[in-house]
Design brief:
The chain is of the alpha+beta class and 151 residues long. The protein is built from four helices and five strands. Strand 3 and strand 4 form a beta hairpin. The protein is globular. Bound molecules: zinc ion.
Length: 151
């Protein structure tokens, strides 16, 4: 069974159980990928995230025995407009994930895991690693500021 994750903050109900929240995942929870705005009702990324970026991260979590704190994954339209995210931001369509990661060794293991799994778009800041699996965008590895919501 998976690791405890500190942003796993969801109340399960009869129509959204722990089983739903971990379906198809070894270590992560779909609720880690929901919108964090606290105003919408997208508490889980399950119906909003594309499978690929979530499965990739879950696989890295399992293989590297790392727990992940997801800063940002799916973002609802209202919050995305407010931040603001670019209109073509991968966060709006469930393809982008921003993982909090400050430890240099862990950061290396995360990035290595992404690259060996074919991820070709990675942005790194002091506090996080961002990646997306949007095949319509070019391959890219770049450093970004911590307050950057681009991509
Ligand atoms: Zn929201």
């Amino acid at each position: 069974m998976g690791y405890y994750v500190k942003n796993h903050n969801i109340e399960y109900t009869f129509d959204y159980t722990l089983k739903d929240d971990t379906e198809g995942l070894d270590n992560l929870y779909w609720s880690q990928f929901g919108c964090k705005c606290d105003k919408c009702n997208v508490k889980s990324g399950k119906n909003y995230m594309e499978r690929l970026p979530v499965y990739i991260l879950d696989d890295i979590s399992r293989e590297e025995r790392m727990r992940f704190y997801i800063d940002m994954a799916y973002v609802c339209k209202k919050e995305a407009d407010k931040l603001p995210l670019l209109s073509k931001s991968s966060h709006r369509v469930g393809l982008g994930v921003r993982v909090r990661c400050t430890d240099h060794k862990q950061r290396f293991r995360l990035i290595r895991g992404l690259i060996v799994r074919g991820v070709s778009r990675i942005h790194v800041a002091e506090e996080f690693v961002y990646f997306d699996t949007d095949t319509l965008k070019p391959m890219e590895f770049k450093q970004t500021p911590d307050n950057y919501y681009g991509a």
